[in-house]
Design a protein that fits this description.
21% of the residues lie in helices and 20% in strands. It has 528 residues and is an alpha/beta fold. Among the domains are: 7-74, SH3 type barrels (Roll), CATH 2.30.30; 289-442, Leucine-rich repeat, LRR (right-handed beta-alpha superhelix) (Alpha-Beta Horseshoe); 443-527, Phosphatidylinositol 3-kinase Catalytic Subunit, Chain A, domain 1 (Ubiquitin-like (UB roll)), CATH 3.10.20.90. It has an eleven-stranded mixed sheet, with no helix packed on it. A five-stranded mixed sheet has the order 23-22-26-24-25, with helices on one face. Strands 1-2-3-6 form a four-stranded antiparallel sheet, with no helix packed on it.
Length: 528
C-alpha cells in the first residue's frame, strides 16, 4: 500500500502479519513525518494505546490498549473472492517440459496453443466446485461484477470465516452471483450491517445455514437482514454480545436450529422473546451464565405453550445449581434430548451417576441425556429410586397411599412436580420402601443379595453384602474370583421378588447397582 491513501480506507479491514484489525484513522501523526494508519485490533492485547498520541485523540477504541499506528505498507487490505478461490483451488500449471505444443488454425493463420489446455483445465476445475473453504484467505470484496458467476456457478457451501470483509453489502454482491448458495460461514468478520428499513434481496434465496459467530452483529441487525433469508433453517450467533430486544414476528419463521452460546447479556426473560418461533427444534445456550428458568404460563404438572417444537436443548457451561431449573424443562412439550454438562449441579464427578438418575426422573420425556441414549430400564430404575428416595418427605408433606387422602402441600409439589405422576405410574410408595437417606448419601449403603448361576447347577447359591454404589464391572471382578470364571465371560442380570418372572440385564459395566435399582433381597444371576 502506498502513501497516497484517501479517507476511503476508514472502516476497512486489514491483516498485519496474521493479526486482524479495522482502520479507524488515516493521516499524519506529528512529529513523525509521513502517512499513518490508526488500527483497532480484534485482539486488544495486540495494541499499545486507545487511539491517542501525546495528548491528541486520533481515533477511539473500545479497549484502552486496542489501538496502534502502522505504516500503510505494513497493511494487507486483501483480495477479491475469485482471486482467493483461484489461489486456493486452481492447480499450478504443468512444468514446461510436460507441456505439449499444439497448432490451431484460425482462419488462414496457424496459432500455437501452448497453455490453452492449462487454461481450460483451470476453468473446468472452478466450474465443478461446490464447496470452498477460504478461511483466513484475506477476502475483502466481491471483485469485478459477474466474474464469480462466470467462473464458479455451482458453489453451494462457502466458508469465509476470519477474512477482511467489512460490509454486509459486499457479502450480498458475492452471494448474488452464487445462486445455489445454501451454507455460509462468516464468523470473525467484523461486518458493518445496514440500518433502517428491512433489507430485501434475492441473494440468499437458497440459504439454509448461516454462521455469524463473533461478527459483532446486533439483534436488531439480525431481524433486519433476516428478511432476506426466506428459507433459513440454521442460524449461529455465538459470542456477539447480543441482547434480544424484540420478538421476531415476520422473520426467522423457518429456523430449526438457533445457537446463542457465549452471549452473556441474554437472560431468561429475553429467551421468552424467541419462545414462539414455530419450527425451532434445537436451541444451543452454552456459556451464557444461565442460572434460572421459569415458564410462567404453565403450572405444576402442566406443559408450557412456549418453544412448542423444541426437541434438543443444550445448556452446557452455565451456572445451573438448582433442581428447579431441571424441573421446568419437564414443561416443554417436545423436548427429548438435553445436554447439561459442566454446571455446578452436575460438576461433582463422584455423584455423577446420582445426578444422571435425578435428571432422568425429573424430565419424563427425555430419551437422550448428554448425548447418551436413555434405555427403558434406566428410566425405570431412575424413577423408582427417585420415588423411594423422597418417599419420607412426600409422606410428611401430606402424601398418602389412599388416593382420597393423598394431598401433599404445594411446597413439596413445587420441588418435586413429577412425584405424583410417578406414584400413579408405579403406585404410591409403602412405608417399607422409604429411604431415610437423601439420594446423595446412598453410596455407603449395603445390599444383601443372593447370587445364583442358573446355567451351572453344581454351583451353590451365594449370599453377599455389596455396596449400592458398586459398579457392575467390580461385581464381575468379585464373581470372577469366587466362581473361577474370566471376567470377560460373565453376563449379569437380576430379578426382584417384587416383579416375579422379570429379569433385568446389567448391561453397562460402568453403572452402579443403584443405577439399576437393585435392592435388598434381590437375586443376581450370573451366566457364562
Amino acid at each position: 500500500m502506498n502513501d497516497t491513501l484517501t479517507e476511503d480506507v476508514i472502516g476497512r479491514r486489514v491483516d498485519v502479519n496474521g493479526e486482524l484489525g479495522t482502520v479507524r484513522f488515516s493521516g499524519v501523526v506529528p512529529p513523525v513525518a509521513g502517512l499513518w494508519l490508526g488500527v483497532e485490533w480484534d485482539k486488544p492485547e495486540r495494541g499499545k494505546h486507545d487511539g491517542s498520541h501525546q495528548g491528541t485523540v486520533y481515533f477511539k477504541c473500545r479497549h484502552p490498549t486496542g489501538g496502534s499506528f502502522i505504516r500503510p505498507n505494513k497493511a494487507n487490505f486483501g483480495v477479491d473472492f475469485l482471486t482467493a478461490v483461484e489461489h486456493r483451488y486452481v492447480l499450478e500449471d504443468e512444468p514446461d517440459e510436460e507441456r505439449k505444443e499444439q497448432v490451431l488454425k484460425i482462419g488462414n493463420k496457424l496459432v500455437e496453443t501452448v497453455g490453452f489446455d492449462s487454461i481450460a483445465k483451470q476453468q473446468s476445475q472452478l466450474s465443478k466446485l461446490q464447496e470452498v473453504s477460504l478461511r483466513s484467505c484475506a477476502v475483502s470484496c466481491a471483485g469485478e461484477g459477474g466474474r464469480i458467476a462466470d467462473a464458479c456457478p455451482n458453489i453451494r457451501k462457502v466458508d469465509l470465516s476470519r477474512n477482511l470483509l467489512s460490509s454486509w453489502d459486499e457479502m450480498i454482491r458475492i452471494a448474488d452471483q452464487l445462486k445455489q448458495l445454501d451454507f455460509l460461514n462468516l464468523s470473525e468478520n467484523k461486518l458493518h450491517f445496514p440500518s433502517g428499513s428491512p433489507y430485501l434481496t434475492g441473494a440468499f434465496s437458497a440459504l439454509k445455514v448461516l454462521v455469524l459467530n463473533r461478527t459483532g452483529i446486533t439483534w436488531a441487525e439480525v431481524l433486519q437482514c433476516a428478511a432476506g433469508w426466506p428459507i433459513l433453517e440454521e442460524l449461529y450467533l455465538e459470542a456477539n454480545d447480543l441482547v434480544i430486544s424484540e420478538r421476531p414476528t415476520d422473520v426467522l419463521q423457518t429456523i430449526k436450529l438457533l445457537d446463542l452460546s457465549g452471549n452473556r447479556s441474554i437472560d431468561e426473560n429475553q429467551l421468552f422473546r424467541i419462545a414462539y418461533l414455530p419450527r425451532l427444534e434445537q436451541l444451543i445456550l452454552s456459556d451464557m451464565g444461565l442460572s434460572s428458568l421459569h415458564f410462567p404460563d404453565a403450572g405444576i404438572g402442566c406443559k408450557t405453550s412456549m418453544f412448542p417444537s423444541l426437541q434438543y436443548l443444550v445448556v452446557n457451561d452455565n451456572q445451573i445449581s438448582q433442581w428447579s431449573f431441571i424441573n421446568e424443562l419437564d414443561k416443554l412439550q417436545s423436548l427429548h434430548s438435553l445436554s447439561c454438562l459442566r454446571n455446578p449441579l452436575t460438576a461433582d464427578d463422584k455423584e455423577a451417576q446420582t445426578t444422571w438418575q435425578m435428571i432422568i426422573a425429573r424430565v419424563g420425556q427425555l430419551t437422550t441425556l448428554n448425548r447418551c441414549e436413555i434405555f427403558s430400564e434406566e428410566r425405570r430404575g431412575a424413577e423408582l429410586d427417585y420415588r423411594k428416595a423422597f418417599g419420607e418427605e412426600w409422606k410428611k408433606a401430606g402424601g398418602h397411599q389412599d388416593p382420597d387422602k393423598n394431598r401433599p402441600h404445594e411446597g413439596f409439589l413445587a420441588a418435586h412436580p413429577r412425584y405424583q405422576s410417578l406414584c400413579l405410574k408405579y403406585g404410591a410408595p409403602e412405608d417399607g420402601e422409604f429411604k431415610t437417606q437423601q439420594p446423595f448419601m446412598l453410596k455407603n449403603q449395603l445390599l444383601k443379595l443372593t447370587i445364583k448361576c442358573p446355567n451351572q447347577l453344581d454351583h451353590k447359591v451365594i449370599e453377599k453384602q455389596l455396596p449400592v454404589s458398586m459398579t457392575v464391572q467390580k461385581v464381575k471382578g468379585l464373581l470372577s474370583r469366587l466362581l473361577k470364571v474370566p471376567v470377560s465371560d460373565l453376563l449379569l442380570s437380576y430379578e426382584s421378588p417384587k416383579v416375579p418372572g422379570r429379569e433385568i440385564e446389567l448391561e453397562n459395566d460402568r453403572q452402579s447397582l443403584q443405577f439399576y435399582s437393585v435392592e435388598n433381597g434381590d437375586c443376581l444371576l450370573a451366566r457364562w
